[in-house]
Design brief:
The complex is a heterodimer of chains A (212) and B (10).
Chain A lengths: L2 H24 L7 H14 L10 H24 L14 H13 L6 H15 L2 H10 L1 E3 H28 L4 H23 L7 E3 L2
Antiparallel strand pairs in A: 1-2
Helix pairs in contact in A: 1-3, 1-7, 2-3, 2-5, 4-5, 5-8, 7-8
Chain B lengths: L10
Classes of the chains: A mainly alpha (212), B little secondary structure (10).
């Protein structure tokens, strides 16, 4: 555990909590892509199957359970509890265009051809593109509430910090997880345009993000 | 596979 990894995990947790509380407190999921949230729930489900097969640490187990519970709770808020506020007309990204290639790739390029390992690989690949429905929705509507942009900022920052963690681990322990690193770079690239808008617009005091 | 790959990251 190094500082980049810890800050990355904290950033990830902060992002998920921001989104959950935003929906819970405002009793509305307006502007939020339910499809992205279902994909993230799928990411955690397929990645954390090792909760049943291997124990790494109390920290690891607790974080996995928290991520799983919060991701499903968020999906519940969007599709059941506050369904009337869900903007399905703007959430039109075709997720099968992500799921099919990602599933195919996880069978082709993995560390071990076993169900649990293929599902882990699937989760890594899927995570790198899971935010696309949300970004697509913002592009389509041309705006996002600032609280939504804070969520996206911390979610993007998390994987960027993991990149620093992987550089650190490579130099200190020779650790190199090619699948995670390549996917992590791809994932972070998707956020770059957003990071630019976040810094130049939201942090300059605009109440919401409007696209030029 | 005789040995499972260890993923210690989240």
């Amino acid at each position: 555990m190094n500082v980049f990894r810890l800050l990355g995990d904290v950033s990830h947790l902060v992002a998920i909590i921001i989104l959950f509380l935003k929906i819970f407190r405002s009793k509305s999921c307006a502007g939020i892509s339910g499809k992205s949230q279902v994909l993230f729930a799928l990411v955690f489900t397929t990645r954390y199957l090792d909760l049943f097969t291997s124990f790494i640490s109390i920290y690891n187990t607790v974080m996995k359970v928290v991520f799983l519970v919060l991701s499903y709770a968020t999906v519940y808020l969007i599709y059941l509890r506050f369904r009337s506020s869900y903007d399905s007309e703007s959430d039109t990204f075709r997720v099968e265009f992500l799921l099919v290639p990602v599933a195919g790739l996880s069978f082709l390029e993995n560390y071990d051809f076993t169900p649990i390992e293929i599902l882990w690989t699937f989760s890594i690949y899927l995570e790198s593109v899971a935010i696309l429905p949300q970004l697509f929705m913002i592009t389509k509507t041309g705006e996002a509430e600032s609280i939504t942009t804070h969520y996206l900022f911390f979610l993007g920052l998390y994987r960027a910090l993991y990149l620093a963690n992987w550089v650190w681990r490579y130099h200190t322990e020779g650790f190199f997880d090619q699948i995670a690193v390549v996917s992590g770079v791809v994932q972070t690239i998707f956020y770059c345009d957003f990071f630019y808008l976040y810094v130049t617009k939201v942090l300059k005091g605009n109440s919401k993000l409007t696209l030029p | 596979a005789d040995e499972s790959v260890d993923h210690d990251e989240l």
